[in-house]
Amino acid sequence: MANEEDDPVVQEIDVYLAKSLAEKLYLFQYPVRPASMTYDDIPHLSAKIKPKQQKVELEMAIDTLNPNYCRSKGEQIALNVDGACADESSTYSSKLMDKQTFCSSQSTSNTARYAAALYRQGELHLTPLHGILQLRPSFSYLDKADAKHREREAANEGDSSQDEAEEDVKQITVRFSRPESEQARQRRVQSYEFLQKKHAEEPWVHLHYYGLRDSRSEHERQYLLCQGSSGVENTELVKSPSEYLMMLMPPSPEEEKDKPVAPSNVLSMAQLRTLPLADQIKILMKNVKVMPFANLMSLLGPSIDSVAVLRGIQKVAMLVQGNWVVKSDILYPKDSSSPHSGVPAEVLCRGRDFVMWKFTQSRWVVRKEVAAVTKLCTEDVKDFLEHMAVVRINKGWEFILPYDGEFIKKHPDVVQRQHMLWSGIQAKLEKVYNLVKETLPKKPDGQSGPAGLVSGDQRVQVARSKAQQNHALLERELQRRKEQVRASTVLPGVRIKEEPVSEEGEEEEEQEAEDEEPMDTSLGGGLHSRLANGLPGGRAAGGDSFNGHPPPGCAGTPVARELRAFVEATFQRQFVLTLSELKRLFNLHLASLPPGHTLFSGISDRMLQDTVLAAGCKQILVPFPPQTAASPDEQKVFALWESGDMSDQHRQVLLEIFSKNYRVRRNMIQSRLTQECGEDLSKQEVDKVLKDCCVSYGGMWYLKGTVQS
């Protein structure tokens, strides 16, 4: 009480809430300008606003007669921005930088606690602020000057007539977009490009600016005073003390709205527990990928029924070695595709199911064996393995979690149900991939642990023993094929020198295979790591003994015929392809084939290249620049040499040019074609051969696939 007596009330002020400008009042701040140097007396040339974004632009005049103004610099800037010719679109019509633009940015998004106050005749009138904007000088004219400079450089570099001619034969790529998934739509809506596009779509509203001492400004300032004297409009301030305090200090939920939003892939445990149980399990498994059941129960909380969790986990995950691994269709929804190869979700799910099934048979999986069976690219296979395994040097990929025998013993009914599901998946995989049932070591009686655990070293031993058992049979087959080749290709009087088969070389190969990671490199996906198509690795199809081409006896096999048909059809459409692009098209072709097709038996890169060379194509040794970022497969360029039409000669001349040059100008190609094919070569013929084989970038022509985008 003593303190209150020492601090008496000196004056009581009535507070009024004015609403006339509540949705229109903005506070402008100029953070790069001292408060003593206002813009009140500077002429404002124009003003415009985007109301939804609360974005304002003001144009103010610059005093060009001021002694501190450098006239030569102003003329130079205007020349750089507008060029020598002034027109209606010019930024500086006077050929002098005589104005500057100010752009706004929001100081705060929540202006609910800010108001403009006007004290008059013992009354305080408050008007809520609609926005608080900070205006800074804009330097967009420098971007315009830079664009002008680049245009002048581009005009000086090349001949405009050549550019116009090249535009006629510019390659056009037509793409058919797939239906957009809800997940992809949300990512697109949240992207920076989409937001920028939406902001640009809002039209500018042009405004009239009135100075500080203008009569219209004086009239508008009257709206800052509360218009109603009866107090009917000010019922917001007639509150009880607790309600008034609540208005001054809103509760915490209001404050949480301004907290930064977490990334879309981050969900707090508090938010997670507000969702239904099925959604909680799905989100956890989708993020963790592999989890023991005990860990899942600890994350969900002690009050959750384990029976309900078991029922829910079986809808989104599969049991592997006593642990739960998220299902493939959860990670790869129906309308999605691989970010690496573009393979559809159905093929990705099938490949990942194969990896999961392999881990039900063994704790170890060899990456190359998976790639050989599934025919998927290395990046996709690596993604599958990283979800559920860790790599071990010289051994392969080991399942990431230890075998959970406690769960197996505690829930035999769930284990039996999962075993039946895996049996169905195995039957489907055997049909699709033509799998051969491998003989795995049997588990001794009474041994605890997962069934059929086979290490990488044991795989190598099994492969070696099988190779030794079949060695004699393979040698006889090799001799029989040699006799067939000799009978069909040897001319009278020609004797072929035969080299003895070196046992030491084979032993060295076995030693190398032991030292490196024991990965399966066979085309069929079996355990014969040194065999391909029934022949030793050094004499497989496409070996040196046949000069880089497959043996004549193999050309009539169904696999060779199907592969030859694919290659011929592809090159009739594309004419020029890199090995990387050809392999991508072949993988897409495989994905479109029905299960059990002959091409699923295994096609190596060498077999694919030999088929290309045998189909009337040639490899073009393009001299790539030393600093190229192209991979070895991208540097192998193949082109259709003979197709039987009138363009063969033109195409061959063009390909010879690119065997000596990485990039060529059109006039050089034109002159060389005229020299080789005669003066009557029309522009349409030149355009056709360029369109078939080349692409144009920056006035230069490149073979398709050789320029890095």
From TrEMBL:
Annotated stretches, region: Disordered:
146-183, 440-468, 491-555
Start and end residues of each DNA-directed RNA polymerase III subunit RPC5 C-terminal domain? 442-709
Q: Where is the composition biased (Acidic residues)?
A: 501-519
- What superkingdom does the record give? Eukaryota
Signal sequence region: none
GO BP annotations, alphabetical order: tRNA transcription by RNA polymerase III
Q: Where is the composition biased (Basic and acidic residues)?
A: 146-155
One Gene Ontology cellular component: RNA polymerase III complex
UniProt keywords, alphabetically: DNA-directed RNA polymerase, Transcription
The protein's name is: Dna-directed rna polymerase iii subunit rpc5
Name the source organism: Lynx pardinus (Iberian lynx)
